[in-house]
Amino acid sequence: MGMIKDLMNQTRKPEGRLGKMMISSMNSGHARVSDWGMSCLGGVEPESILEIGCGGGRNADELLKKYAGATVTAVDYSYLSVEKTIEYNRKNVDRGRCTVLQADVSQLPFPDASFDLATAFETVYFWPGLAHCFSEVARVLRPGGTFLIVNETDGSDPSSLKYEKIIDGMKIYPPEEIRAALMEASFTEVEVIGHGSKPWVAVRSVK
Ligand SMILES: C[S@@+](CC[C@H](N)C(=O)[O-])C[C@H]1O[C@@H](n2cnc3c(N)ncnc32)[C@H](O)[C@@H]1O
After folding, report:
1. Which domain holds residue 154?
2. Distance of CA 143 from the midpoint of ligand 1 (Å)
3. The total number of structural domains that make up the chain
4. Cut 0.85: pTM above it
5. Does 105 sit in the ligand 1 pocket, CB within 6 Å?
6. Tens-digit pLDDT string for the chain (207 aa)
7. CB–CB of 149/120 below 8 Å?
8. Ligand 1 pocket test: which of 58, 123, 124, 153 has the largest number of ligand atoms within 8 Å of its C-beta?
9. For the domain that residue 149 is a member of, what is the CATH number?
10. Cα separation values, 110 from 59, 93, 122, 153, Å
């Protein structure tokens, strides 16, 4: 259990040798839920995108493919995630379409109203205080901008709850708790989209 727990804890903030192992598996492990979540972004045509908790960097690349005219700024508070995201997106980094920075969502290093779309895949479980972090996302979004949260579990499947016990500081939020925190952070038009046959959830909201 010790080794598995140590490895699983690297999902929160990849560091060191185990962190490198975990990052290598994140892109493939989250591909299906991420692609489904991105399909919930109909009607949005962003020019500037903030991808928060970018992990291995696949989602930044998928966003760049989906929105050919857009730029993506990817952030993560883990140095290893930043390194991996740069490596995964090398061509777009060199072309100036992708910028990757080490930053904590609770204190984003951007001026107000910098982005049209913010995304958060498989990461809000670890954020320090949802309403505060959502307010910070709202601050850097332009009025009318969209915030998309995608989680592999909405807490309805008992098997996923074991991760809360294994991973320090992880919290699996029921969608209604996410909705309430978004509204507290002054987001509107909050839409909870369930997958149907899996416990996956996407929450879309508008600044
Ligand atoms: C489970 S991984 C998901 C990575 C990627 N989004 C994906 O779907 O594969 C969670 C990521 O969120 C990052 N993260 C967690 N809390 C964060 C915070 N407060 N600020 C920035 N990044 C954070 C972690 O470092 C990690 O890379």
Report:
1. 2-206
2. 25
3. 1
4. yes
5. yes
6. 588 888 888 889 999 989 998 888 999 999 999 999 999 999 999 999 999 999 999 999 999 999 999 999 999 999 999 999 999 999 999 999 999 999 999 999 999 999 999 999 999 999 999 999 999 999 999 999 999 999 999 999 888 888 898 898 899 999 999 999 999 999 999 999 999 999 999 999 999
7. yes
8. 123
9. 3.40.50.150
10. 20, 18, 22, 30
